[in-house]
Structure formats: C-alpha cells, structure tokens
Amino acid sequence: MPTKNDSPPVLKGSIPKTYDLTLFEKCQDLSITCEIYNNLHVIFNTIHPKLTHFNIKEINEVSFQTDTRKISYNGVVIGIGNSVEDMAKQGLIIIFNEVATKEGVEAVTKAVNVSFSDDAQEVTLSVVNAEGSKSVKTLTMPVPVSILDGVVPAPADQNLVTFTNIPDLDHLALRFKTSSSKKGIFIPVFDHNLGCKITNNNTITDIANPDGWQSSYIHSSDVIKDGRVSLRFGQTDKQVMFGFSDTFSTYSYEVLNYGIFSNNGVLSIREGGNTPSLPLFDKYTVDDVFSVERIGNTIAYLKNEVTFYVSCINSTEDMHFCFTSADRGASVTDVLQHNYYPAAEGSSAPTFDQSLGCEITKDKIINTSNPDGWYNSIAYSSGTLKEGHISLRFGQTDKQVMFGLAADFSSHYFSVLNYAIFSNNGVISIRESGNTPKSLPSFDNPTVSDVFSVKRCGDVITYLKNGMVFYVSTIKSTKDMHFCVTSADRGASVTDMLQCASYYPSDGLFGIKSIKGVSLNKATREVSYNNTVVATINQDKIPKFDLGRGYTVIGVDTLLFTFIGPDSGWDLAYFYSSSYMKHDGCISLSIGQTDRQVKFGLTTHEHTYGPYFSILADNGVIFVNEGDVGKRASFGKYTTEDVFSVERHDYTIIYRKNGSVIYTSTEHCAGDIHPSITSPNHGIKVTNVRIRDFYTERDTDGFYIMFNEKASQVTIDAVAEAVSCQIDDPDVTVEILYSAKLLDALPSN
Which of 493, 540, 314 lies closest to 395 in space, CA to CA? Predict the structure, then answer.
C-alpha cells in the first residue's frame, strides 16, 4: 500500500508580466499543495548558484533568522533554510517542519528574493516531498528586464521604505539606521562567569580565591562571525589571556582557539594553548588597545589598530569572546565586541586583457611562447582587486609557473608580481617581487586538483592551498592589485582562474540608487530629483534631542533655551542626548549670539546636567572648562559664524575652533561619551549641532537625508524609496526629524 505522502506535491502559478528580483512575490496565483508538508523541500536554483544570492524578506508575517537560518510564519518556526555555503553549491533549499501549512509555505516562497554577483540568471522553483517525489511542474522566472538592460543592483540590496503623505516641508530630515544592538559595536554579554566581577559594564576583574588558571573565566554567548573583540589590560604585572573560543567546554585557557596572552609584561599568542612561531614582545601600557579579529576564516591580532600577527590556522566555527586569568586582582577594561556587517562577495572569471605568448580561454591559460623563458609568456588582468582573493589550479606538476597579484604591468619578468605562488617542477614556494621570504620553507607533492589562492584583506596578504592558509606575508599591501600569471616553459598551463571581490560599501551600509528620477552626486553628497538638488546626505549625525529640560528644538539642528523667567542659573536648562559614541568622536556647533553664556561638549552618563569636557562661551569670549576645574585661559573672541568642536581621540580630548586646535586636555577620558549643552540664560541659541563617530570601519549605522526648500511630497517619496541597504535582512528604522513648529503637520503614525 502506498504511504500517505506518496503523491507528488503540486506546484501551480503563472509568471507575472512584470518580473524582477522579488521573484514570485507578485505571483498572485502561486499554489503549493502537498498531502503532508512536514519535510517538504522548496528549492530555488540557477545554472550558476555560486554567483547567486537568495534572501528571505520579512514580509506578510514571514521572518528569517540569518544566524540559525530558521524561518517563521506568524511567529512560529515552520522551516529552515540551508547554509550560505551550501546555497552556493545547490541554490536555496527550504525544508519545512510538521507545523507548516499550505498558507505558510506559500507565504515563505513569495518572500524569497534574489541578487547576482555577476550576470543575472533564470531562477527555477521546484518542490519535493518527504518521499523524494518532485512536482511535475516547475516555475522558471526569466532574467529580470532591468538586468538585461544593464542595470545590475548591488548585492543583497534591499528597498527599505516608501513614504506617503509627508508634508511639503523645508528642513525635513530622514534618518536611516540599523536598530539591532548586536550589529556594529556593543558590550558583549558575560553570561558564563566563574570567579570574576563585572564593573562599569565592561571591566572584568579576577576575584577568585584561590587563584589559578581554572579559577577565573568569562565566556560570552554573543556570536562573532566577521568581527573582533578588543580591550585594554588593566596592568602589566599579571597573567591574563583573552580572545576567541568556539566552545564553553572547559575552564582551561586551552579553550581559547585564538588568544593574546599578557604574561607579566610580556605578550605572546596562544592558539588552543599552543604558541605559534612568533617572537615575544613587551613594553605595552595599560592604554594600548589589543584586538583579535576575524574576517572570513582568517584571524588577525592587532595592537592599537595595527596587525602584528595573522594566524595560519583557519577559523571555520562561530566564535565567542573569552577571558581567563591566573592571578587574583588581574583586570581588563573597555571590553567591546564589534560585529562587522557582512561584505557582499562576487566571483567571476577574470579578463586577461594584456598578454604575451599565451593562449587564453575562459578557464585556461597555456604558454605558447617560442622560445620559452620567463620574459616570453605572461597574462595580466586590468581588473582591480581591492578586497578579496584570486585562485586557480596548476595544469601540471613538471613545469615552472607563477601566479599572484601585481600592482602594475611594468615588466614581462616574474618580479612584476608583488605577491605570488611559484610551482617549480612539483615544488611550491612563495615569491614577492621576485624574492623568496626567508621564513618560509618550500613544500612539494601538489596535485593538479589542488586549488591555490592569494588573498588580500585590508593590507594583509595570505597564501592558501585548498582554503587553508600556509603563509602570511610580512610585506603590507597598500596599492590596488591585479591578477597576473607567468611561466617559463612552453606548454605550461593553469586552469579554473577565479577572482572573488569583497565589497564593503564605501558610503557605509546605506546608499541612494538612481531610480525614478533620483540621483546622487557622490563627491558633493547632493541628492537630485529630476535634475534639481533637493537634499544632502550629511555624513555627520544630528544627535537625538531627547533628554534634559528648558530647551526647544526650533529646527532640525538648532536648540533654543526657553525656560520661563529671567536668567536663573546653570542647572535649570540643559540638554543631554542618549546618542553616544563608544570610541572616538566629537560634537560641533555654532553659537547664535555673543552676549550670553553657553557651555557645550562631551560628558558621561555620570554627568547628565552638563558637559564635563566643554567649551564655555562667556559674553563673546571662549574658555575651556573640565569638570570642577575653573576657566582655562581665554582663547579669544568668536562670532556666530565660527564652528567649535570638542573631540576625543585615543582617550584624549581636543578642543577646536574652525578646525584649528585651541587646547588639548591633560585628563584621560574613557567610556561612552554623550553630547551635552547647558546655559543659564533665557533665549540663548546654538545652531548646526552635529556629532560624528570617528570609528566608522564597516559599521556606519545610517545617514541623514537633509531636504531643502525645493523638496516636495513627491520628492520625499521618491528619495525615500531610492534608499538601499547593503546587508541581508537589515533591521532598519527610519526616523523623521522636523522643525518643532511643524509638529501638528506630521501624520500621527
């Protein structure tokens, strides 16, 4: 007798006349019918899945967790998607569970969209039940028209919002930002704690008694994929170790897969308890910031943002912050986790448009020179590699071939390759500008199946065999690079050449697409609609005007101190913002008059009634104030056109007037810093209030679109719709900032 689920599933639907990267979202008659939905497989595939990226949008009660790959409908988990690695091999496969229904399966299927890192492709939808029976019908979505026309969207590009019924306002601003606390920079949770005390949120102190390596331990459940952990050692005379751990299986320091060890003033690396072939070094201070960073599967160790070692052991598991100490009283401070937004990766066959003595096809280069020799056969690609890697396979093991990265094509000799892998009659070694690194032994027995790669991440070059790092260059890469192949022997060949570029959006996570009359001038940051400039993207941020009393916001970035009554003292009117900077940053503004008093600057959560590090404008003259310290010497007169700023750089506070330093503090400033402004005078005004977070590497969490008097409702709708975000499943909020007088004009929702 056949089982209940022997009947194949039934897939029905028609391709909409207008089709795009949202795939079947607009397919109104999509139907997926199956006797039992448990273990039903919904499959999206293309001819080249490696160049395809599928994403599940959060629409129509569908939600998707990128870390666990779990898919929910109406708040209930009904299925799971395959991993990103598996998706690159066989497309997107969604497996539904026993609580899945027809309604949920169809909603999830419609929520799938696609992007391409190279030429667009047709996407085929099919369904398979638990018994392996496949639907008779499949649905194939043609290549989107916009792609055929040559408009290729950025990888994982997401339309965020379309506004309607927004008033036609001057000085309206939209702020786009990610709202997830686990993206960007944050303090990790310290939820596995043995023998440690946590103070000031991110200071860890060993209080174990007795002490010893297995007596004091912190492990965080916060996951690190691409990102880093950083801290400062609280002393130089104790034994402390921190870094990455993929498990919470033991209290021994050996649980740290990748760690930095401070041993009574001497620093070294520990990986699984072992020390790599790295010389020890000392003379660090408690002000030095140390970091362990992962990008892809590569681990780097940094001191004050400078890489001092790159691991030769690939990291393939999710990582977690881990701390351990052998000495009671040992501490670390300013512990932070920084989760990078994922880069979009695009793989493609490189174009070798400059060559000599070669026969070049799409997947093979053959030396055809006569006579042979190093000067007579070389292939060079003018395509630029900033971040990413190149790879290939050697076509044989009995000839001399070299490939890698070259900054230019100034010579036909192999020394033009700045970073190269050399296959010399079955022996593999490294050549850098023709030279062999002293610390690298050559090795042999490669096969024609082995894939060799040269990878660039920032300014660090690594060499890989079958995905495993076997050497890290000590020479920093500071120029754009190009794929280059050369050989000395006629008939020598390489195959399967591939270039994979990683793109971190240069303008942060957000961008403006050129659609529906909207365009962006990247040089001036001006946004135009139908060739008229209607807005500017402000790289500085306007702080939230959300805490304090006795002031009114009279524009997007202007404060008026309006407490009732005569001038009454410093404590009656102050502004303190919940906007803050964890690392370096500044507040800047202009002072609206020269005959009153106002004080502004940076403060911590402990000083909410006024800035601790501040500039004081006192009846036309500028002073510096710090805490309870009185006025510093006068720094001269000012006008309402002058721009003043208070900045923090590496725990040091700097005061500026029109960009020039007027004073550098001798006090140390650590911790979160907030903008703050206060005045004792009724009616005083400050204008153009801005903050800027200087720590923007890969984590810019939004920007402002500042509209001008030429903007209209149609303009605002179009520009808002053109905003895009370069990450999968962005958890994005949009805030509307406006003049206080227009409060009643804004829609209540």
Answer: 493
What does the pLDDT look like over 323-369, one tens digit per residue? 999 999 999 998 988 877 655 555 677 889 899 999 998 889 999 99
Q: Identify whether 324 is part of a domain.
A: yes
DSSP at 477:
P
- Report the helix count and the strand count for the chain, using DSSP H and E: 4, 63
Whether residue 139 is found in the same domain as residue 259: no
Paired tokens of 12: 């029905």
Residue 417 maps to which CATH number? 2.60.120.200
Same-domain pairing of 67 and 198: no
List of residues 6+ apart from 598 with CB closer than 8 A: 561, 591, 616, 617, 677, 678, 679, 681, 684, 686
Per-residue pLDDT tens digits for 191-245: 888 899 998 778 999 999 888 888 899 999 888 888 899 999 999 999 999 999 9
Pair (464, 582) in one structural domain: no
Give me the residues paired with residue 41 across strands: 95, 128
> Quick one: how far is CA 558 from the chain centroid?
32
**Is residue 495 domain-shared with residue 349, that is, in the same domain?**
yes
> If you count them, how many residues does the chain have?
749
Q: What's the structural domain count of the chain? A: 4
Residue 75: count other Cβ atoms within 10 Å of its Cβ: 7
Q: Whole-prediction pTM value?
A: 0.48
Residues 467 and 561 in one domain: no
What are the residues whose beta carbons fall under 8 Å from the beta carbon of 257, sequence distance 6 or more?
A: 243, 244, 245, 246, 271, 272, 313, 315, 319
